[in-house]
Amino acid sequence: MIRFEQPGDHPHVAVVTIDRPERANSLNLSMLRELAESWRRIAADRQIRCAVLTGAGDRAFCGGMDMKSTIPASQRLARGEQIDAAEFEGLRSVATALLAGFDLATPLIAAINGHARAGGFDLMLASELRYSVPDATYALEEVALGLYPTGNATVLLPRQIPWVHANEILLSGKPIDAGRAQEIGLINEIVPAEELMPRALAMADTIAGNAPLAVRATRDGVRQIIGRPLDEGYVLQEKFGSPLRKSNDAREAQRAFVEKRRPKFKGE
Questions:
Q1: In this structure, is the dihedral angle defined by the CA atoms of residues 157, 120, 77 and 82, taken in order, positive or negative?
Q2: Which letter does DSSP use for residue 130 in this model?
Q3: pTM higher than 0.90, yes or no?
Q4: Which of 153, 241, 248, 262 has CA 20 to 30 A from 33's CA?
Q5: How would you write the pLDDT of the chain (268 residues) with one tens digit per residue?
C-alpha cells in the first residue's frame, strides 16, 4: 500500500511511504494507482509546500515494479486481450507514479531507507534532495534484462551527474553503494538509519518555511533553464523572477526584516 500523511508537527509537509517491505517495496498495480493519486493530490494542494518520499522497513526504498503482477497484465494488453478496469488503470498510472513527465510542482525529498532499484531509482531521480542510509544500493538493471530504462533514467540521470558516471550506471547494470552515489553527486548525504526521517523532515520544514511562490518558481526555473543556452537562461530567469518582486510575500519579507521577526508567508 501507499501511505499518505501530513504530520501535524510539520506544517505544509506531506510524507508518502511505499509500504510493502515484505516485497522490497515493489509496486504492484494497485500501488501504482495509489502512488499516482498521491502525486496528483500534492500537485493540486498549494498548502503542501514540500513532500518527502520514503519506503517502509529497513531493507528497500523501492525495488521497482512487481513483475509478477505488472508484466502479465501489460503482456495481455499488448496482445489485445481484455484486462479489467483496475489493471488498466494501474498500467496507465505508471508514468505518473514514477513522476516521469508528471510535474509535481512541489519540491520532493527522497529519504532513501534501503535499496533503490529500477523504478525506485526513477523515483529518486525525480526528487530535488536525497538522503540515504549507509547500506543502500542503487542500480538500473534494465540492460541486463534486455530492456530499455523508460522511466526517468536516460532523461534525467545524464543531466544530474557527469556523463561518464551516468553511462556506467546505465550500461553496466551493476549496483553502486551509497558511498559511491554520494561521491558522484547522486545523493546529498549519508545519515544513520535512525536519523534519516528527522533529517529529511528538517529539510522539508526549512523549504516549507520559505516563501512558497519563490520556492516553486525557483524549482521550476532550475528545471527549465538547465541545458538551455545562456542567453535563453537569462531571459527565463527574469520571467520567473519579475512577478515575485511584486508579490505580497516579498513585501512581507521586507517588513519582517525591518521588524526583526520571522516572516509569515501566505503564498500570494
A1: negative
A2: E
A3: yes
A4: 153
A5: 999 999 999 989 999 999 999 999 999 998 999 999 999 999 999 999 999 999 999 999 999 988 777 666 666 656 666 667 676 676 778 899 999 999 999 999 999 999 999 999 999 999 999 999 999 999 999 999 888 988 999 999 999 999 999 999 999 999 999 999 999 999 999 999 999 999 999 999 999 999 999 999 999 999 999 888 999 999 999 998 888 888 888 887 888 888 788 888 887 7
